[in-house]
Amino acid sequence: MSADVGVVQESKGLGKGQVGLLGAVVIGVSTIAPAYTLTGALGPTASAVGIHLPAIFLVGFIPMLLVALGYRALNAAMPDSGTTFTWGSRAFGPWLGWMGGWGLLAATILVLSNLAGIAVDFFFLLLAQITGNDGIADLTRNVPINIVTCLLFMAGACWIAYRGLEATKLVQYVLVAFQLVVLVWFSVAAFVHVSDGTAPAGLAISPEWFNPFGVESFSAFAAGVSLSVFIYWGWDVVLTLSEETEGSSTTPGRAATLTIGVIVTLYLLVAISLLSFSGVGDGPLGMGNADIQENIFVSLAGPVMGPMAILLSLAVLSSSAASLQSTIISPARTLLAMGHYGALDKRFARISPKHQSPGYATIASAVIASVFYAVMRVVSEDVLWDTITALGMMVCFYYGITAFACVWYFRRQATTSVRKFLELGLAPAVGGALLLVFFVQTAVDSMSPDYGSGSQIGGIGLVFILGIGVLALGLVVMAVQYAIRPAFFRGETLPKTVA
C-alpha cells in the first residue's frame, strides 16, 4: 500500500538491501520467540479462560493486526529505523515522539534481560537432561553463576548483532527453523495421542473453543486478552530494519503482516493440540493444574514427545537465545535514530564502518540490559519478574502512539476514499484505542498489592510502581535532553509533517 506522498527517508549509514522478505519474517518470528513465549503464557491464559484458549489467541490477534496496518502505512511513507520515535515526532511533534521512543527502548531493554534469564534457566536444564544429573539444573539458582552465564549469553548476542544483519540472518535461519519444527512436532504428537486414545483428556475439537463470548466473566476475558500483548509483541522489529531491507517502503510492512500471520497460525495449532491432549482440568497433566502452569512444556514434553522431549527444552533455549540476539536490533536502531536526529548524544548515531551496523548503540543496549539484569537478580527474582510484567504497559503505550500517529499523519488522505479511511483511519484508530484500554486497565489492576508477585511499596503494587515509574523516568530524561539539545525539541532536526 502506498501512502501517496513522497517517501521521506534520511540515510544514517546503515547497510542497504541486506534483508529480503524471508529474512525479515524470520527475524520477526525470532523476536516474538514462540517457544519461549508459549512456555510461560499457555498456563496463565488457560487458567483465566479455560477451553476458550484458541478464541482468546484470535481476539488478541485483532489489535496487533490493526496496529500493523498503521505501521505498514507509516513505513510506506517514512521508512526509518526510528519507527515509533520518528513517526510520533513527525505526526505529533518532538515531545510525544521522544516518549514513544522511550517506551520502545524501555520495553525492549527490559525484555532483553528476561530473555537472557530464561536462556540461562533452560541452558542448565538442558545440561541436566543430557548428563542425567538433576543437580546441574539447580545451578541457575546460584546467583553468581547465573549472572556470569547471563552476561556471556548477552555478550554473544551483542557480538552477532554488532557484526550486522548478514551474521544475524545466518544465526536466525537455523534457530527459528529448529524451534518451529519442534513446536509443530509437539502439536502433531499431541494429536496422535488423542487419536490413539492415549491422551489424558482426549477432547474432540469443539466450536465453543473459538467463542470468545463464552468466557465466564469480563475480568477473565480481560486477563486473557492482556496476555496477548506479551505473546504477540516483537513483530515490529522488522520495521526498524526498513533502511536495511530490499524495497524499504514496502517489504517491512509486508514482513510485519506475514510475521503476525505465521505466529497466530502456530499459536492456534499449539493451543488446539494441547487443549485436546490435556484439557483444562486440574489433573496431573491438565492445564488447570497450578503446579504445571508456570512452565507447561517442562511438564508435558515427556508425556507428549516421549524420549524426544529433550528437543523441546532445546527449542525453548534456542528460542530465547535467538530472540535475545534479534531483539537487540530494535533498541539499537531506535537509539541510532535518536542520536541521528539530535534527541540523544550523537555517539549513538555512530555506524561501524566495517559492518554497517549501529555499533555504539548495539553495545549500549546490551550493557544497559546486562546491568539491569545483574542488579535485579541480586535484589530479588520477584522484582525482575514484576519488571517484565510491567513492560506490557510500555508496549501498549508505544504501540498506541504509533497507531494514533498513523491516524493523525494521514488525516487528510483518510477522507479521500473508503479504502483509505479504513486502512489509514479506522483500523489503526480502533487498534490504538484497544491498546489504550489495555494500558489503563493494567495500570489500574497493577495498583493492587496482590498483582504480579505480590510485592508492594506503601500498599501499592510493585508492578504499577515499576511501569509508571519507568515512564516517569522517561519524562525526567527527556527534560534533561531538552536542556542539553533544544534544537530537536524545537522541531528543527525532525519537523512535524502531514501526508
From TrEMBL:
PANTHER family: AMINO ACID TRANSPORTER-RELATED (PTHR42770), MEMBRANE PROTEIN (PTHR42770:SF7). Its main location: membrane. It is a multi-pass membrane protein. This is APC family permease. Pfam families: AA_permease_2. It is found in: Cell membrane. InterPro entries: AA/rel_permease1, APC_superfamily. Gene3D superfamilies: Amino acid/polyamine transporter I (1.20.1740.10). Keywords: Cell membrane, Membrane, Transmembrane, Transmembrane helix. The keyword Heme does not apply. The chain crosses the membrane at residues 19-39, 51-74, 95-128, 143-162, 174-193, 213-235, 255-276, 296-317, 357-376, 388-410, 422-444, 456-480. The keyword Nucleotide-binding does not apply.
